[in-house]
């Protein structure tokens, strides 16, 4: 199951699990659409491809909660 990280690692913008617009690599490094585009859809951590992260319906958050651990480092 995906962690569904709550923020962009590059700029810190919120990326809710139920909303589109997040991009991830195979290690689940997570970026917003703007940062993913600026990175040419390549993860700066592992050089893997950044792809659209699927969304998680809100009614599933109780059973399978998204991560609350933020990864943005200013």
UniProtKB/TrEMBL annotation:
InterPro entries: DUF1272. It comes from the Bacteria. This is DUF1272 domain-containing protein. It comes from Qipengyuania algicida.
